[in-house]
What does this fold into?
Amino acid sequence: MINTGKNREHWANRAGFILAAAGSAIGLGNIWRFPYMTGEHGGAAFMLLYLLAILLLGYPLIVTEIVLGRASQRDPVGVFKVLAPNTPWWLVGALGVFTGFVILSYYAVVAGWSLAYIYKVVIATSNPGIDHASIFKNHISGVWEPIIWQAVFMIMTVGIIAAGVVKGIQRWSTILMPILFVLLVILIIRAITLPGAEEGLAYYLKPDFSKVTGRTLLAALAQAFFSLSLGMGALITYGSYLNEKDEIPASAAWVAGLDTGVALLAGFALFPAIFALGFKPGAGPGLAFITLPAVFAQMPLGTIFGVLFFFLLGIAALTSAISLLEVVTAWLIDEKGWSRRKAAACMGVVIFIVGLPATLGYSVWKDFSFPGLNTDLLDTYDWFANSLFLPVGGFFMAVFTGYAWGIKHAVHEVNKGHKAFAVGTWWTLLIRYFVPVMIFFILAIGIYDTFVK
Ligand code: PFF
It folds into this structure.
């Protein structure tokens, strides 16, 4: 990023933006959340619904968020103050900042598991016959150990945001993310050549729509939003560091494509192994942490690959976490005049504290469950943030862009600086009608299925 005359930092070049946005998108959502959600919601049918959600709702909204940020050059709350002054629209941005806060609070817990697994995987892969599920359960119910790793992860996130993003994380991700990609491909090769892998492939690739309910639809929508970092202003914030000369439509397609590709690959690494090694696809949040070490244990040099994998997963989580903290930080800098360091540090501490119940939900508070959801505390945070706040945020961003700001204006703004392709009537129709109507409908039946039925 460089300083412009207007005093706001901007990405140094187009690749910088795409990499940062893809770094935000690609994270635990792809490798940890996507497989266990697919496993809990019946496999291939869920995967297809997720792909449709990415294409028809996700992509148009990525474009929307980026253009809102670029046109206003402000944080998610400031966007609405600039584009619709003296209206209550800023509340949409406020919901986004709040959601970023909630997501990061439990994201750091799961990222902490990943950091701990950099060494736990050594134990898991070097003792034949070990019970992988109990290693994971013992870890998460261990109170202090997960809390310490959660704290370490928050400190790393705060450190990067306080220092500014480009020199550290952007350079690192450019080198490290391709290695994660290669490692996933190696894992897939091992997984699909295990005896009994076909059953898992069939589960992942042959849809059974009879199992689809309102809950499934909402879960697929939530997964698409979470994975694309959509609905809470992360992309507004990153878009606000773009110039009018920068391209939006094709960059947005790159981000969506890379993110979806990594999620699909993670599914290919996990499902064949789950069935071949006798695990259950519906195992919940522990799925990747239980299954992948078991696959590493079946590989030559598995321990080394395992250590490398969880290290890279930690990096992927970090490039997402910084985008979550950047939303909250940008809001305090732009709207409240705080310094970057103070904003990042204070919010880091508060977010860590808010995340403690999510960790403790696996030990001291394991009996708590929210009526209707019947899940642990971490999943409860996850449900409210991803199944409720993100879609609500996306809905209002579409309505704002399609009606309040004005769709003609928006199209004109999006297409400024475009090179590969421009948006046209199709985008207008999606943002004005399809996106809001579908989100509304899916939210309504999803909530009905979850709490009323
Ligand atoms: N997209 C991230 C992931 O898939 O892990 C999570 C995330 C980051 C969600 C940033 C929302 C966000 F604003």
Summary: Residues 1-5 have pLDDT under 50 and may be disordered. The radius of gyration is 21 Å. Residues 90-126 form the longest helix (37 residues). The CA atoms of residues 247 and 418 lie 4 Å apart.
